[in-house]
Amino acid sequence: MDKIKVMTIFGTRPEAIKMAPLVKELEKREEIESIVCVTAQHREMLDQVLELFQIKPHYDLNIMESKQSLTGITSKVLEGLENMFDKVKPDIILVHGDTTTTFAGALAAFYKKIKIGHVEAGLRTFDKFFPYPEEMNRKLTGSLADLHFSPTITAKSNLLREGVKEESIYVTGNTVIDAMNFTVTKDYVFETKELNDIDYNKKVIMVTAHRRENWGGGIENICEALKEIIETYENVEIIYLVHLNPVVKDVVDKHLLNLERVHLLSPLDTKETHNLMNKCYMVMSDSGGLQEEAPHLGKPVLVLRDVTERPEAIEAGTVKLVGTDKKVILKEVKKLLLDKEYYLEMSKAINPYGDGKASYRIVNSILHYFGFNKEKTEEFKE
């Protein structure tokens, strides 16, 4: 084998952010032919990341439709990749994390007996409906994968308990830290004018909340809590990056539209988001990725979920689970706003998710697997 054909497959913005530095690392290696395929499960938000990292996909399935269902996404990815695999014949495909693109991509590769590498492998909540459908996407992808690139020792331990062979698991750190080393700059000026007009000497709270399990009552409770926070604390500004889905946006607008010191913005591109995080006081989110990103910047995170597949940050003290109970949210926000020692304890805790070299380790591990490197690369140590 002269070169390894490595195809990266992703379809959403969170995947793209974490796969972009890996694509860049793959492109550096003369032993690898790097091929990029996007499903465009999310179209506009995906394209923002591709532009930021200057990645031009070799193949674009362009599957996104209005009100698309999980079944529809899965079937389109399977059919699109089947034809592509016949044409390209990759030696290994790489998928990331927990999206429907991830699971369907792995399944399509399995049907063609193509090797599968799972980036960010081994995260678990042990509840198949939380988060939904991500928990089962991860587990099913893990069952199909040949190589498991776990970000932490905890994730590796989860895989071992499920019977995955230890020699197929590589602890690499999380590629999102690699990405943030590229996106965050000290004197950043926002393209979104409203963000430049905010006084960051105030206690600015960055908020995202959009997950399926929070639709309805959960989002209602979060918005009611945010309204009370802004009415109680005069030195607080809230920036809520509101998901475009009407199921979320309509509820947020009902409770928070036109409130003083509440800024309702559409989702930002990756660079804007990371630099906003860097300037804010704290983060409230039901996102998975922000639980890894914000601690890297020393920002405490209140997780608006009842369970998380990222327990390392809880153990490290950088994030805290608060769920969507209004009273619990208000109690924890009050502590972070008024108790300086508590805030410093969370903000200065060590982030357990990486050192910026995850992509390097992953590519070296692939080369080792295919016999190009004799020794297994040194793993990430938390």
UniProtKB/TrEMBL annotation:
Leader sequence residues: none
Q: Any keyword Isomerase?
A: yes
EC number, UniProt record: 5.1.3.14
Query: Which GO molecular function annotation, any one, does this entry have?
Result: UDP-N-acetylglucosamine 2-epimerase activity
Keywords assigned by UniProt, alphabetized: Isomerase
Q: Is Hydrolase given among the entry's keywords?
A: no
Q: Which domain of life is it from?
A: Bacteria
- Record domain UDP-N-acetylglucosamine 2-epimerase: where: 24-366
**Pfam families xref list:** Epimerase_2
Regarding protein family, the annotation reads: Belongs to the UDP-N-acetylglucosamine 2-epimerase family.
NCBIfam families recorded = wecB (TIGR00236)
Q: What is this protein called?
A: UDP-N-acetylglucosamine 2-epimerase (non-hydrolyzing)
Organism annotation? Clostridium putrefaciens
Gene label: mnaA
